[in-house]
UniProtKB/TrEMBL annotation:
<dbReference type="Pfam" id="PF10266">
    <property type="entry name" value="Strumpellin"/>
</dbReference>
<dbReference type="GO" id="GO:0030041">
    <property type="term" value="P:actin filament polymerization"/>
</dbReference>
<dbReference type="GO" id="GO:0051125">
    <property type="term" value="P:regulation of actin nucleation"/>
</dbReference>
<dbReference type="InterPro" id="IPR019393">
    <property type="entry name" value="WASH_strumpellin"/>
</dbReference>
<protein>
    <recommendedName>
        <fullName>WASH complex subunit strumpellin</fullName>
    </recommendedName>
</protein>
<comment type="similarity">
    <text>Belongs to the strumpellin family.</text>
</comment>
<dbReference type="GO" id="GO:0071203">
    <property type="term" value="C:WASH complex"/>
</dbReference>
<dbReference type="GO" id="GO:0140285">
    <property type="term" value="P:endosome fission"/>
</dbReference>
<dbReference type="GO" id="GO:0007032">
    <property type="term" value="P:endosome organization"/>
</dbReference>
<dbReference type="GO" id="GO:0005768">
    <property type="term" value="C:endosome"/>
</dbReference>
Length: 1138
């Protein structure tokens, strides 16, 4: 059936629009290349359709540059998934219009039995679906151009084409035609602030495939004729008033607006047709919401079409606009008065709703028509309405919307309960009528002894007959039942004229009660679903989806003034759920699998809007919380355990406590409105008020913490003490914040301390995650992060820009102040000191870091410095292999032979070392940089690990000891398993039952600082040739510049001041150890042997100098430091030291 095919097409169209809107929010900003840095870095790998002219040249340019290859791989690695999904959307849009064209072609060719285009357009549902299918294609094209810029679409297609290849793409030419830039950009506006349209837009864009695919213009003309002349959706019965006709036909009007662009000759030349369209659909409005709140102004978009412009002339006359505006303002005043009456407590009762159903529906129509016109037209720019006080009128419109939503909510609730209780109410009224009539029959039977009315057999028989008639009334057929009850009421009125009845007030009272009960039965029998259907139609708000954003701030201000206004806002959000009705109708009818995803998307959008509006409550809450923090931190003094009686009044601090109580009460009032809300189902998303408040507080908490941390990072310390002072101030702020949250927890019904710790940890983890991006090929962008709240609040900077985030700045400062150019590391003091002996980075700084960042922050610093070491080692390894000439490697081989075996003392050893230092000066310079950076970073990691270990030992001593035991046990088990490998019983390593446990325990061990920071392998590259010999040359070169200060026990550079190339003994030893531990342990042996050989030569070949010359002492002290940090057992060195 053609109708079923068209239904499936319409369902696909609605799903594609939802997918387009979903994906448009995730299109990478990088593809727009708006910033100069992005253009410079990625301009040659993110190519538009110009690539298709010379693809070989473009590919050659990229492949000939390692940097461009890396950039290209980075783009695909980071954004390949979203690129594939967007390209799949483009393909689906092309397939959609191709399938529609095939359906039309099949109808014209007679492939559908007894169905043609004309017969489908005569079918009630067929004409709807055929018009909708083409309309949705037009909407797709417009939204595609609005949501994703043409240049971005081209770059996405070319990126997909380059990485997937032409073989994986069907109809690449057609897809390129579909997404090719049109010249339209929503960022380019005219003097009215509206998007500027290029010539021939959008009709040329719309017709790219219409003619090519063979969709005849006569088919489109027939669709337009149906839309302009018929009430296709039968909505006029829901809007019986003539002044509401344009609202009733608004659905067809928006479809006409789109379809006319497929037949632009009508807009240009068909004056009579356009006049008919405007008179019927746009006589009292000129702003059209063509899809889900996407709004256009007809005078602006039709300004270039002669017939359309002429037809709109009357509507857009200033006098007509003023008249329409004034009439809608009068309607607004009238609607507000009616709503004020209906919303009065106790008015909308069951009886009132039964009696005034028609009037209540009319009130709902009037309110919604007024709200619709004002919401759409007050924002008009091309033809502005003459508003005297825009702000005040905007508030009046918002108030009308809130009251209308509340009124509709209560009316639907009341009418739903009537439908539920309809049968019960009918039976109760019917039973009462039967009982009353039976009593009257008995009354005229004359059986009552005390009755003064004489017996009347005819009236008895007549009332008995009425009893029988009422008992046979059934509510199933309301028309028949209503007609019979009207006859009964008329008969009861006539019987009152009888003299036997007229003289009896008691009987007349009975008859009046029976008539009232019959009227109630008539009203009950007329309670049908069509009332709720009509109410659902007239309360539609899908047209205002984008327009409502302009009233968001007004909503927030209203909530700020009156927190209990959220109860009306809840009804407004429920009213906004009507946006789901339009896209889901066809999807539901077609039983499409897209139903869940589409409903989930739109429901999530409504829920997100609700959260944005109500976020004002957490924002105000934290503004009051800042006052509490100020009071607790600076005003209120802690009361001692014992207070003298005479000083009790002073310690009471009544003024400060009154301010504290007032702030606490304000917080309680702010949250009470949300907490009194009921759980709300917005589409398929259920919103719990407590969860809503908790999520809002989390979001605002993260924002406050982010601003606090970023403000602290803006300090530029000129010395380490400045950094320490900044951290002290930050600790005070964080402690006050934490204390205040804990104080108000009971008043807002949340665990403030838990929220603080969770979100602060998430924020620090997000900072760490983003800083790690500087070292990763596969980066975790902010929109991919699992820390959503932190990602939303942090103003993201380029990944490698350490100074742009609090955490990156802290890492840079720590590396700066622990550099050998500024401080020495003291083994005895376990800290960095300056030349005067003053502590620079030590226990105080680590304690502040722990109090500021917590365990999560210390682990983040540890891992970040680990990444720094890894990056430097990779850089050095690449330099060692690529930048050192082959001839120098040959010289290294000759030096190695000359110094072998190391147990001997070659002649002229010192000359060999001096010559090698000159020969390998460039290589040794890179070694100096690597050793210095790696040594300082590893010492910082060691300090962080030690701080974690001390903290865990003090705070959780039992867990600390348990982790130590578990770690040792698992390591022992693993060692035994490895020892068994290769034996007859265990030819290969079997799976251990403790593998899962090992991973879990390892995480806790690292968090407790029980894993050493020094014995780690960072890179797994091949061994660098003759690395121990090069490091020996480097060590001797550096030791010649150093002396052993026995007073403070330091091995430092000679001189009172620190030069730029200063060397520190401990970082030097640790840095060399770091380079050696990346290979086999034999490298340590080779290096130690070279150094011992050099030491023996100093002792044996002394000329004038004694054995304890400073040079010998320096080498001995360095070797001692190196062996201590490497945990290397060297008996020969011990002999020297003794």
């Amino acid at each position: 059936m053609a109708v079923q095919a068209l239904l499936r097409l319409s369902s696909r169209g609605e799903a594609l629009i939802a997918e387009l809107q979903r994906l448009s929010a995730h299109v990478p900003h990088l593809f727009s290349l708006q910033e100069k840095l992005e253009q410079k870095q990625f301009g040659e790998v993110l190519l538009d359709f110009r690539y298709l002219k010379t693809p070989e040249l473009c590919e050659h340019r990229i492949e000939s540059s390692p940097e461009l290859i890396a950039r290209d791989a980075e783009v695909w690695e980071a954004h390949g998934r979203i690129v594939c999904r967007v390209f799949a959307l483009f393909e689906a849009v092309y397939t959609y219009i191709k399938d529609f064209a095939k359906c039309v072609s099949d109808l014209r060719d007679g492939l559908y039995i007894q169905q043609t285009v004309e017969s489908v357009l005569e079918h009630d549902e067929g004409k709807q679906l055929m018009c909708e299918a083409l309309y949705l294609y037009g909407v797709l094209l417009i939204l595609l151009d609005v949501k994703i810029e043409g240049s971005v679409r081209e770059r996405i297609v070319i990126t997909y084409y380059r990485h997937k290849g032409q073989a994986s793409i069907e109809s690449i030419d057609d897809i390129c035609t579909l997404v090719k830039a049109t010249g339209y950009s929503h960022t380019v506006t005219d003097r009215y602030g509206l998007p500027r349209r290029p010539p021939g837009y959008p009709e040329e864009y719309f017709c790219r495939f219409i003619r090519k695919l063979g969709i005849d213009s006569s088919v489109i003309s027939m669709m337009i004729a149906r839309l302009r002349s018929e009430d296709m959706y039968s909505l006029i019965p829901s809007y019986p008033m003539p002044q509401h006709r344009s609202t009733a036909l608004a659905t067809q009007a928006k479809m006409l607006y789109i379809l006319l662009y497929f037949e632009p000759i009508i807009l240009e030349e068909h004056y009579h047709t356009m006049r008919e369209i405007v008179d019927k659909h746009f006589s009292d409005n000129w702003v059209v919401a063509f899809y889900m709140g996407c709004v256009i102004e007809l005078p602006h978009v039709w300004d270039g079409y002669k017939a359309a412009k002429a037809a709109l002339a009357n509507t857009c006359q200033p006098a007509s606009i003023k008249s329409l505006y004034d009439s809608n303002l009068k309607m607004l005043v009238s609607a507000r008065q009616q709503l004020a009456h209906h919303l009065t407590e106790g008015v909308l009762t069951q009886e009132y709703v039964l009696e005034k159903t028609s009037d209540l529906l009319h009130c709902a129509r009037e309110c919604n028509v007024c709200v619709r016109w004002l919401l759409l037209h007050r924002t008009s720019r091309f033809r502005k309405v003459p508003a005297d006080e825009p702000q005040r009128e905007a508030e009046a419109v918002l108030l009308l919307l809130l009251n209308t939503a509340q009124y509709e909510y209560l009316l639907k609730k009341r009418f739903s309960s009537l439908l539920t209780e309809k049968d019960k109410m009918w039976d109760a009224a019917k039973t009462s009528v039967v009982a009353h009539l039976q009593e009257l029959a008995d009354f005229f039977a004359g059986t009552n002894t005390f009755s003064r009315v004489s017996k009347d057999e005819q009236l008895r028989t007549w009332f008995t007959g009425l009893v029988d008639q009422v008992q046979h009334l059934e509510p199933g057929d309301s028309t028949i039942a209503g007609r019979k009850m009207h006859h009964l009421i008329a008969a009861l009125k006539e019987v009152e004229q009888f003299h036997q009845i007229e003289a009896s007030l008691q009987i007349k009272q009975y008859l009046a009660e029976i008539r009232d009960l019959l009227y109630r039965m008539i009203r009950v029998v007329n309670v049908r679903d069509h009332v709720l259907v009509t109410l659902s139609i007239v309360s539609d708000m899908s047209y205002a989806w984008d327009t409502m954003s302009e009233y968001t701030q007004l909503m927030r201000q209203r909530v700020q003034r009156d927190p209990f206004s959220v109860l009306k806002l809840r009804a407004t959000f429920l009213k906004l759920v009507s946006i789901l009705d339009s896209p889901l109708v066809r999807i539901n009818q077609a039983n499409s699998p897209d139903l869940e995803s589409v409903s989930q998307y739109y429901s999530a959008e409504v829920a997100s809007y609700m959260r944005r509006v109500l976020q004002v409550i957490p924002e105000n809450l934290f503004s009051v919380l800042n006052e509490i923090i100020e009071l607790q931190a600076h005003s209120l003094q802690e009361i001692p355990v014992k207070v003298p009686r005479l000083e009790l009044k002073d310690w009471a601090q009544l003024d400060h406590r009154h301010r504290l109580a007032r702030a606490t009460h304000r917080i309680s009032v702010l949250t009470e409105g949300v907490l009194t809300m009921q759980t709300t189902l917005l589409g398929v998303v259920q919103v719990d008020p407590k969860e809503l408040l908790r999520d809002g507080i989390r979001k605002e908490l993260v924002r406050q913490l982010t601003s606090m941390l970023q403000a602290s990072s803006n300090v530029k310390p000129s010395k380490a003490a400045d950094l320490e002072a900044a951290l002290c101030r930050l600790v005070v702020k964080l402690d006050g914040f934490q204390l205040a949250l804990e104080y108000v927890s009971d008043y807002v019904k949340i665990n403030g301390l838990q929220l603080f710790r969770e979100e602060f940890a998430n924020l620090i983890n997000f900072y760490v995650e983003q800083e790690h991006n500087a070292f990763l090929k596969k980066k975790v962008h902010s929109w991919q992060s699992t820390f959503k709240l932190a990602a939303a609040s942090v103003n993201n900077a380029p990944p490698a820009a350490f100074s742009n985030s609090f955490f990156g700045r802290l890492v840079r400062e720590l590396a700066h102040w622990t550099s050998p150019r500024r401080a020495f590391y003291s083994n005895e003091l376990r800290c960095w000191i300056d030349p005067s002996g003053k502590e620079v980075i030590g226990y105080r700084m680590l304690s502040l870091l722990r109090r500021t960042l917590g365990h999560v922050g210390l682990r983040g610093l540890d891992s970040t410095f680990g990444f720094l070491v890894t990056a430097q080692l990779h850089r050095f390894a690449n330099f060692y292999r690529q930048s050192v000439p082959v001839e120098q490697f040959a010289q290294l081989e000759r030096y190695a032979q000359a110094l072998s075996p190391t147990a001997t003392l070659p002649e002229k050893l010192s000359k060999h070392y001096a010559a090698a230092t000159l020969t390998f000066s460039k290589l040794l310079g890179e070694v100096a940089v690597t050793v210095s950076r790696c040594g300082s970073s590893k010492l910082l990691r060691h300090a962080m690990t030690r701080a974690l270990k001390d903290s865990s030992l003090v705070d959780t001593s039992l867990l600390h000891q348990a982790l130590l035991a578990a770690d040792q046990s698992l390591l022992t088990e693993a060692q035994e398993s490895f020892l068994k490998v290769g034996t007859l019983t265990e030819p290969k390593l079997p799976p251990s039952p403790f593998d899962d446990l090992l991973g879990t325990v390892s995480q806790y061990v690292d968090a407790a600082g029980l894993r050493g920071a020094l014995g780690q392998v960072f890179i797994s590259d091949d061994v660098l040739p003759h690395l121990p010999l090069v490091l020996a040359f480097f060590t001797v070169q550096q030791l010649a510049r150093m002396f052993h200060n026995e007073t403070v026990g330091l091995l430092t550079t000679m001189g009172r001041s620190l030069p730029d190339d200063a060397i520190d003994g401990v970082p030097l030893a640790v840095g060399i150890h770091c380079l050696l531990e990346q290979g086999h342990s034999v490298l340590f042996d080779e290096y130690i042997n070279y150094m011992l050989q050099y030491l023996r030569s100093l002792v044996c070949y002394r000329e004038v100098k004694s054995a304890d010359t400073p040079e010998v002492n320096v080498v001995l002290e360095f070797m001692r430091i190196f062996c201590d940090w490497s945990r290397y057992d060297c008996p020969e060195l011990i002999e020297f030291l003794q």
